[in-house]
Amino acid sequence: MRGSISSSLVWAAVATAALAGVAVAYELGDEAGGTQQPAVVSARVTEPTDPGPGCGRAARTDVGDLGADRQVARCAPGFPEPQPLAEPALVRLAVGEGSDAATLVHVAEERGELAAEGLEVELVVLPARAAHEAPVAGEVDGAVGHLGPGFLDGAARSSGARWVLGGTVAPAAGDLSLPQEGFWMRTGIIEGQERWYGIWGHTVSVPGGLGSVLSYPVGAALARGDTSLGVVDVEGYAGDRAVEALLDGTVSGAWVPREAVEELVEAGEFEQFVTLPPGEPLDGTVLSGDLVGERREVGVALVRALIRTVNTHLSGGGTSDDGAADGEAAVDGEAAVGPPPLYDWEIRAGTTDRIQHQLIRVGAVAYERPLPEEVLVDRSLAADALVRRQPDPAAQDQG
């Protein structure tokens, strides 16, 4: 694989066991786009324990199911089987700086899944917004990571780019009793989930600022407390910088990545108020109009390689050297970090509506009415990737 990006395989082993306990409410009312999540999350998103042979029933789920207790789609390891292109192809994918979104692509390359399809992938590291604008402008063949305004504005201009694969879901999303990736605040600023008035005038941080897709879950939580992101100053710190700003008081609240949560738990001065949405990926793979259209066979081959990588190398759970479940380091005898995310290649129905409602509200996109899902999403490449292509009789006769 060409390109200089470095990314650890932090999601190479994923937890599959459901965790016990009753979670805190995560509701998305009309302010979040007219859809409401279950008020109480009492289960976890899991993988099927036995997906069966090949790509069978477990390879597809109801994309309208937003339940926090649903199962993600899976095929058997090694499936869908490779179907090499007639001619090798180079695919250039953009990834935002500081993002772990390229992990799946790295695994696919290192385990030979891309080569099995006749693909070579080059990763192009760009600033977050530029990464999503690049496939729209035809500068690259696609982008991996969270959705962003660059992609949405491009779709409004009929770029032809489409969101073709989902990314990851947090198995314990909605459960604020289990520390995990999400929006954390210094203790004492607000009084519970329904009383956010104390946040007025404070400075908070969301990676990418108001234009980030992560403003969707944060904005939905604020709306439940009769307030909004409009009453705070929003910075765009990400990763370690966001944690530093929270610890030194530069910001009162910040979206904190999973790998930094343990530090906040140890500090003992912070509490979590928002998680990722239950059962719903906000990231994944966007492909250019070229790979969705004229060179569609290349787009399908890439999608097939990534789906097979999930089934073969990024499923089934795992344990660390000391026997503890991956991602559940202990602090004072309690779990410090929730289970790692699960890869979920399917795109949930209505996700783009909910994202757009929030981004329109804060003026992060250049249009005022949500674009219909069919202008943004194309699930047909994944559907075709799951089906074994039949040999061409004409080609066989010529042979």
Summarize the structure.
With 399 residues, the chain is an alpha/beta fold. The chain has helices at 103-110, 128-136, 149-156, 215-224, 239-247, 261-267, 289-292, 296-313, 351-361, 373-376, 380-385, 393-398; strands at residues 89-96, 119-126, 142-146, 162-166, 168-169, 182-186, 203-205, 233-235, 253-256, 270-275, 283-287, 330-331, 334-335, 342-343.
Which labels suit this protein?
25% helix, 399 residues, 2 domains, D-Maltodextrin-Binding Protein, domain 2, 14 strands, single chain, 5-stranded mixed beta sheet, alpha/beta, 12 helices
Describe the structure.
This protein has twelve helices and 14 strands. With 399 residues, the chain is of the alpha/beta class. The chain folds into two domains: 30-170 and 280-385, 3-Layer(aba) Sandwich (D-Maltodextrin-Binding Protein, domain 2), CATH 3.40.190.10; 182-275, Periplasmic binding protein-like II (D-Maltodextrin-Binding Protein, domain 2, 3-Layer(aba) Sandwich), CATH 3.40.190.10. It has a five-stranded mixed β-sheet. It has a five-stranded mixed β-sheet with strand order 8-7-9-6-10. A two-stranded antiparallel sheet has the order 5-14. Helix 4 (215-224) links the parallel strand 7 and strand 8. Helix 1 crosses helix 8 and helix 2 runs parallel beside helix 3. It is globular and about 60 Å long. The two termini are 33 Å apart. The model is unreliable at 2-42 and 318-335 (pLDDT under 50).
